[in-house]
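Pipeline run #58 for the internal structure catalog. This entry was flagged by the ingest filter as a single-chain record with no existing model, so it goes straight to prediction. Upstream metadata was stripped on purpose; only the residue string is passed forward. Reviewer on rotation: M.T. Logging verbosity set to normal.
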Amino acid sequence: MKKLFLACALTVFGLSLLIHAQEARGVDSILAETTLTEAQITRQKSLNPQLAMSTPNYPVTAGDVYSLTYAAGNTAVQYLITVDTSYSIRVANLAVIDASGKTYTELKAQVESIVSRNYPLSGVQFVLTMPAVFRVAVRGEVKQTAEVEAWPLTRLSDVIAVHLTPWSSRRAVTVRSASGRERVYDLFRASRDGDLGQNPFVRPGDLITIPRVDRVVSIAGAVERPGSYQLLPGETLSELIHYYASGFTDKADPTRIQITSLVDTDHLAGFRREVSVKDGLAEKLQHYDQVLVPAVDDLRPVVFFEGAIGAEIGTTPEASSRIPVTFLPGENYATLVRSHRKFFSAVSDTQNAYILREEKLIPLNLNPMLYDAAFRSEYAVEPYDILMIPFRQYFVTVSGAVKVPGRYPYIPDRLWDYYVALAGGFDEEKNSGQKVSITTITGSRLKKGDPIEPETNITASSNSFLYYFGRYAPVATTTLSLLTTVFTFIAISQ
């Protein structure tokens, strides 16, 4: 009895070593034992037998290759079983079974039961070595009719994904099996609701037909899932908002829903209408309709920032901008300016800003608002105010009786003579005594000892007597000569 038990143990141990050796050889060795071509071997390597065996509902498919290993007495038996289109599987010389309609788990249990009944303690193992590969046909509203390669765990959505056109419908995809049975699937419900029954595994010989889309509408604005959706017949604005777009957001204003119709209207350019939830959402929607759900933020009042501002990097000295800015009732200018400090640049004269309110002009120094977080403005923001930001260019203009008039960069703590020197100095034929006129941008006159500010105008006066004499003397001489000639002619004629 002990000898029999020892023999059985050794047989099982030897069978285990054989199984582990087979697994160690891997897919490459198993494929080499078949008559597949090199291209087929490469393709089969991309399949995943482990994924198939870990899927409880993996369907047995014509083309599957299984490995059956067990011990018959003291002899280890191992061979491959290929499933053909008859789905009849011979289990050694023990039985022939019908595998059609079975899953891998069901087939495994049946095969191992047959072997175990005939060879107790045989250590039987039935393993999927290579999943099947087959083709299915795709036609209808696709880029072109095609045959697509698939395997038993390929779902319907994976097959058609790259073949759809903008006019393909995913709501009523028809699949006709090899036996002629037809079923219709809604792939949107599969992706939205997780109903995998609407996205089945494809099978050998399936014919997939994609219909043309019937109605596509888009929704944007304050809804949870904006986008374009293919509606089913009879579905209205209510289904679009509450099912497809998953309802309003907290900021939605459902009293001003806008619907823009682009086709099937009496207006060539389209027609827009406004509806409210108070009136119900049973509105019928046409193909290509566009729905906009506004947010309550859109109702905020607005002011305008104008002048030396820019929404991006800054404003060039030659350009002026006008930017509408929304605000909340009760807001003051300090909080408004601080929240939009990115609008200001080096050319913005924030010290000399002002508000235009109807016909009033209110001076407003923005510097403490921008740089003092505790500062609060006494001026509340009112709708349609215009906040004017003057330009402050860091140049000094030198003109008049100088050799090179023009604009020159402003340098702090320089007096007027520095800028005149940059302009090449006085033109001595025109200017005598270094007489200049210095005027600020506001029109105030400065003395020669006053510091120069940005945008100051320095004008060198043309006050030389010799310059004016040389300029007008020829004219005066010509005029006198002409008058003398006239008087002489009159005297002679008398």
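catalog note: Confidence is low (pLDDT under 50) at residues 1-42.
catalog note: Residues 216-298 form a domain with the Outer membrane lipoprotein wza fold like fold (CATH 3.10.560.10).
status: ready for reviewer M.T.
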